[in-house]
């Protein structure tokens, strides 16, 4: 893997997580569109790099051990911290839904339409989706073992995801986010050599079309436009080896903290000045400070704990 491609996705994911943060802060707003694109990039990157690392022939036991070692302890450290936050704020903690959250199955409550009765749960659906991604990866990788099959899987999944996103009321842009992982795996397994500039042009035109649809009130094509724009962005990132990020390259250093930022940010929004932009900056500083502490704490866990 070209290190420049890895850097592209590292920076894009960091920008995406701060877009998600801002989208939740200013909700509801037009930011839900770039937030959805950001979630797609997260999912695509996960599928893409997983396929590059493991391919279609993998030791499933070792695969899951690696995933649990990399994500499991971090997740439980975050939830331990959030449990303390909930108790200090007088929220409900002693409920069976809290156990669901600690098992990483928050998304099940969301997707089944069950109202969450625990003080935990905000944003934890994405961790459940990650588990679903990794559970489905071995079969998905085998389905995409050749380029023609990968194309069929990607195209069919795109059509189905757009339809389900339009017809279902699950929320979280679940189907488009799931599509990101599927397309990422298909792309990683087939590794097509494409030029970056047509993808960049398609992404730019998609953004223009989305803005035009929003300004005119015509939103019937939003889902399809977001899907195609997201795919174009990821294809561009996967092929653009000549990007000069300059100072933005430092953002890649925050990639290690993305899971923590995503899981805790809505719990740590503060409003000390009641000035929205300034309070967003203050909240972001608080979130980053706590994130670094939690990440270091999870890394300091005994090796045996992290491996099992």
Could you please describe the fold and organization of this structure?
With 308 residues, the protein is mainly α. It has one domain (3-307). The chain is built from 13 helices and no strands. It is globular. The two termini are 29 Å apart.
Strand segment tally: 0
- The rounded distance between the terminal residues' Cα atoms is 29 Å
Radius of gyration: 19 Å
User: What's the main sheet like?
Assistant: none
Helix fraction by DSSP (H/I, runs of at least 4): over 70%
Order of helices and strands: HHHHHHHHHHHHH
Number of helices: 13
Give the total of domains.
Answer: 1
Shape: globular
- Helix/strand class: mainly alpha
Strand content: under 5%
What is the arithmetic mean of pLDDT?
A: 91
The residue ranges in which pLDDT falls below 50 over 5 or more consecutive positions are: 303-308
Protein name: Acyltransferase family protein
Transmembrane segments: 7-26, 32-54, 75-99, 119-140, 170-189, 196-218, 224-245, 280-298
Domain Acyltransferase: 11-294
GO molecular function, one term: acyltransferase activity, transferring groups other than amino-acyl groups
List keywords for this structure.
single chain; 308 residues; mainly alpha; globular; transferase
Short description:
The protein has 308 residues and is mainly α. The protein is built from 13 helices and no strands. Helix 2 crosses helix 6 (125-143), helix 3 runs parallel beside helix 11 (258-264) and helix 6 (125-143) runs parallel beside helix 8.
